[in-house]
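REVIEWER CHECKLIST
Item 1: Sequence provided? yes
Item 2: Single chain? yes
Item 3: Sequence as submitted:
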Amino acid sequence: MISLNNREKINKSKMRVGRGIGSGKGKTCGRGVKGQKARSGVAIKSFEGGQMPLYRRLPKRGFNPIPKEKIAILNLVKIQSFIDQKTINVNEILNSDLLKKLKLINKNSMKLKILGTGEIKNKINIEANLASRSALEKIEKIGGSIKLKN
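Item 4: Structure as written out by the authors:
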């Protein structure tokens, strides 16, 4: 069994460059002759040998943040719970402005999407930007309507 103390290369000291011909790393210290890469403190960062560098291949983004559309999502089960709590009136048209006023969705949301999770018992008219196919089917089945606006 090899112990840690007598392993090869464990106590090997680092190469001391620039200490004469006999060391094998004398004079130019393995840097070649002259030129940018022979000097100290110089590195050719992002140089890819003439190939178009990565930072120029990628499109500029800078200080123009890509705007994200804030979409408020509402499931049918959530709408039904609001109707049961009498937060939403069934006779009113349910749209994003009403929901924002009642603080049921975030005031910063730009669009409203209706999803079909759960069941809805009351006939209701909804005005939304987006709706899933299952939500459309369930609301039309009970006699309600979803008006999609762009």
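Item 5: Key structural point noted by reviewer: The chain has four helices and five strands.
Item 6: Recommendation: ____
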